[in-house]
Design goal:
It is built from six helices and 25 strands. By secondary structure, the protein is α+β, with helices and mostly antiparallel strands. The protein has a domain of about 230 residues: Purple Acid Phosphatase, chain A, domain 2 (4-Layer Sandwich). Strand 17, helix 6 and strand 18 form a beta-alpha-beta unit. Bound molecules: 2-acetamido-2-deoxy-beta-D-glucopyranose (5 copies). The site of one 2-acetamido-2-deoxy-beta-D-glucopyranose has 4 residues, from loops.
Length: about 475
C-alpha cells in the first residue's frame, strides 16, 4: 500500500523529481512490469500499393467512409467520406430492415495543405434515429458509383445498459497497425464503438506532412470506421502545425476530415466535447489546446462535470492524448501541467477511468490521486484514493515510431501493470456497478488476455 509521505525529507522539494525521490528513498517498487519477449524491429508503414489502401473501384467512388456519434444521446450519426474525381452528391440514403428509405443532405469541404489538395470531403448527419437499431446506408447516392454500409445505433442511455467499447491509440498505418485493427475486429467480446485516444495517420512523419497519408489511413480503417462509430480525440500528430511550409493553422487536416458533435455538449471547439453512450458519459479533452485557468476548455469542463447524471450514466470516462501518469522514459511528465490543472476536478466528480495514448506502450495505474500538492507543503506523492480514476495508457496501436520500451526503474508504486507491446483494449460495461476491462497484445492474436481487471463504479460501488 502507498503511504502518505508527510514529514519526509522530501517535504520542500518540487514534485518534478518525484520519481527520483521515491527510488532514492528506497521505497519498494510497484506492480507488474511484464518482460514479455517481443520482436523489437521498427514498425514499417504499409506501402502505398498495399491491399488496405486500395481505392474502391468505379468512377468517383466514395472512399474513406467513417462514422461518429452525431449528437449527445446517440440518436444521431455523422457519416463522412471522400470523393476524388468530382464533388458528386453529399446525400446519404438510409433505411432499417423494415422501414422506408430516407435521405439526409450533407455538406462538402475541401482544404489545401502545402502542395496537397484534398478530395471532396463530405459530412452528413443522420438525425432522429431509433436506438439499438441496424441501419443500412448508401453514399454516392444518385451519382456514378454508390457504396453501401451499415451500422447499429447505440441503445438508449440508461444506468444498467451494457455496452462494449474498443480502445485504440496511436494507430498509424504500419503492418502492426493492421494487426491491431484486425485483432480488435476479431475480438469475440464484440466492441460496439471505438474510443480513439488520438494520433491517427502519422502523415506528419512524411516530408511536408504528405497528406496523401491521411487518405491512405482513411481507406485503411474504413473496414471498421464505416460500420461502427469511432469517438475521436486529438493527439499531437493531428496538429499538422508547420510554419516552415506556411501551414500555421493547427489541426487543419483533422478538423476537415473528422467532425465531432461538440456543439451538442455546449462546447465551442471540436477538440473538447462529450457524448453519452449507453451507461457511459465520455468526456474528450485536448492535450494541445489551452487548459489553463479561464480558458475555454477549462470553463467547459467545469460546466460539464456537474451536468453528468450518474443515475443515468453511471460510468464517467475521460479520453485525453498525453497521459497524466506514465512511468516510461518517453514523453515523461508531458501530461503533468494538465494533470495539475484537471486532476482535482476529476477526483471531485469521481471519474471512473482516464484513457490516454501518446506513449507507445501499455500501462495501467492503481486508483490514485496526487492533488494535495502545494509547493510549500511538498505533499506531492500519489496516494491511494477511492474517489480517483484509474489511468490507462493505450498508445500501443502500432505506429511507425516504434515501441516505447525504456521504463523508469523501479516501477513506481502507482503503476499496476506495464508492458511494451502493441495491442488494443476493450471495456465491457455490464451494469451500473461492474465493467470488465482487458488488454490484448498483438503477438498473442486476439484471444489471449494479457491484462484484465474488473472495474467497480465510483458512485454505485465505490470500493475495490
Ligand atoms: C491487413 O490485414 C487484413 C486483415 O487481416 C489483411 O486482409 C490484409 O492482407 C493485411 N494487409 C497487409 C498489407 O498486411
Ligand atoms: C457521373 O454522374 C454524373 C451525374 O449523374 C453524370 O453526368 C456523369 O456522366 C457521370 N460520369 C461518369 C464517368 O459516369
Ligand atoms: C438523472 O437521471 C435520472 C434517471 O434517468 C432521472 O430520474 C433524474 O431526473 C435525472 N436528474 C436530473 C437532475 O436531471
Ligand atoms: C532510458 O532512458 C533513460 C532516461 O532518459 C536514459 O538515461 C537511458 O540511457 C535510456 N536507456 C536506453 C537503453 O535507451
Ligand atoms: C452486475 O454485473 C456483475 C457482473 O456481471 C454481476 O456479478 C452483478 O450481479 C450485476 N449486478 C446486478 C445488480 O445485476
Amino acid at each position: 500500500m502507498m503511504k502518505d509521505g508527510s514529514g519526509s525529507a522530501a517535504a520542500v522539494v518540487c514534485c518534478s523529481v518525484l520519481i527520483l525521490l521515491i527510488s532514492s528513498a528506497g521505497f519498494c517498487s510497484g506492480g507488474v512490469t511484464s518482460r514479455f519477449v517481443r520482436k523489437l524491429e521498427e514498425s514499417q508503414d504499409m506501402p502505398l500499393d498495399a491491399d488496405v489502401f486500395r481505392v474502391p473501384p468505379g468512377y468517383n467512388a466514395p472512399q474513406q467512409v467513417h462514422i461518429t456519434q452525431g449528437d449527445y444521446e446517440g440518436k444521431g450519426m455523422i457519416v463522412s467520406w471522400v470523393t476524388q474525381d468530382e464533388a458528386g452528391s453529399s446525400t446519404v440514403t438510409y433505411w432499417t430492415e423494415t422501414g422506408k428509405k430516407k435521405v439526409a443532405n450533407g455538406r462538402i469541404t475541401t482544404y489545401k495543405y502545402y502542395t496537397y489538395k484534398s478530395g471532396y470531403i463530405h459530412h452528413c448527419t443522420l438525425k432522429n434515429l431509433q436506438h439499438n437499431t441496424k441501419y443500412y446506408y448508401e453514399v454516392g447516392t444518385g451519382q456514378n458509383t454508390t457504396r453501401q454500409f451499415w451500422f447499429k445505433t447505440p441503445p438508449e442511455v440508461g444506468p444498467d445498459v451494457p455496452f462494449t467499447f474498443g480502445l485504440i491509440g496511436d494507430l498509424g498505418q504500419t503492418y502492426d497497425s493492421n494487426s491491431t485493427l484486425a485483432h480488435y475486429e476479431k475480438n469475440p467480446i464484440g466492441g460496439q464503438a471505438v474510443l480513439s485516444v488520438g494520433d491517427l495517420s502519422y502523415a506528419d512523419n512524411y516530408p511536408n506532412h504528405d497528406n496523401v497519408r491521411w487518405d491512405t489511413w482513411g481507406r485503411f480503417v474504413e473496414r471498421s470506421t464505416a460500420y461502427q462509430p469511432w469517438i475521436w480525440t486529438t493527439g499531437n500528430h493531428e496538429l499538422d502545425y508547420a510554419p516552415e511550409i506556411g501551414e500555421t493553422k493547427p489541426f487543419k487536416p483533422f478538423t476537415h476530415r473528422y467532425p465531432v458533435p461538440y456543439k451538442a455538449s455546449d462546447s465551442t471547439s471540436p477538440h473538447w466535447y462529450s457524448v453519452k453512450i449507453a451507461s457511459a458519459h465520455i468526456i474528450v479533452l485536448s492535450s494541445y489546446s489551452a487548459y489553463g485557468k479561464y480558458t475555454p476548455q477549462t470553463q467547459w469542463l467545469q460546466d460539464e462535470l456537474p451536468k453528468v447524471n450518474r443515475s443515468e450514466t453511471p460510468w464517467l470516462v475521460v479520453l485525453v492524448h498525453s497521459p497524466w501518469y506514465n512511468s516510461y522514459n518517453y514523453h515523461y511528465m508531458e501530461g503533468e501541467t494538465m494533470r495539475v490543472m484537471y486532476e482535482p476536478l476529476l477526483v471531485k466528480y469521481k471519474v471512473d477511468l482516464v484513457f490516454a495514448g501518446h506513449v507507445h506502450a501499455y500501462e495501467r495505474s492503481e486508483r490514485i490521486s496526487n492533488i494535495a500538492y502545494r509547493i510549500v507543503s511538498g505533499d506531492c506523492r500519489p496516494v491511494n484514493d477511492d474517489n480517483a480514476p484509474v489511468y490507462i495508457t493505450i498508445g500501443d496501436g502500432g505506429n511507425i515510431e516504434g515501441l516505447a520500451n525504456n521504463m523508469t526503474e523501479p516501477q513506481p508504486e502507482y503503476s499496476a501493470f506495464r508492458e511494451a507491446s502493441f495491442g488494443h483494449a476493450t471495456l465491457s460495461i455490464k451494469n451500473r456497478t461492474h465493467a470488465y476491462y482487458s488488454w490484448h497484445r498483438n503477438q498473442d492474436g486476439y484471444k489471449v488476455v494479457a491484462d484484465s481487471v474488473w472495474f467497480y463504479n465510483r458512485i454505485w460501488r465505490p470500493y475495490d
